[in-house]
Fold:
Amino acid sequence: MKFNRIAIIAILAILTVVLAGSASAFDLGFLTGGDSEPQNVTVGGIDFSIPAGFTENEEYKMENEQSNASAVDYTMSAAGFEDDTKEKAIYILVGDYDEYNVTNEIIEYVLGDMDYEKKTINGHNGYLVQESSSSSSSLMAVEEPVYMFVYEQNGDLVFIGATDESYFSDVIIE
Structure:
């Protein structure tokens, strides 16, 4: 499923930020029946808007799950959404690294050799990444493009993965 690729890339990104922060100081099945109206959701204390036609799977929702890696405590919250066809997906992950604030420098380090474009979406400066089988720095083989927008908000890492780049302007609230 396309959602699996997005979730795996998000988890790899969040774990890499943990390692970068310490250095500097799933087979998911979704319910059917998309909502006919856009939904407002809060993930990790940040508000987002999910386009009509997507349904959240509560089974894979993370709320303030705490962990520790390389002496850095962090909290992750996440939510995933798919349409009825299971061909369109949106995944949101917010990572809070306690006393460590995520910066653009950390995000650029995490993105490493990936091809990214600095972009502003609804007033949020971040990094747009397109992963595909032809990407020179692809984290994993993908048959169709997966888009990611990564940015910092209030010192937290915000990761949004989607099967279509156009979803970001709907999901991210100004």
In short: DSSP finds three helices and ten strands in the chain. The CA atoms of residues 101 and 155 lie 4 Å apart. The mean pLDDT is 79.
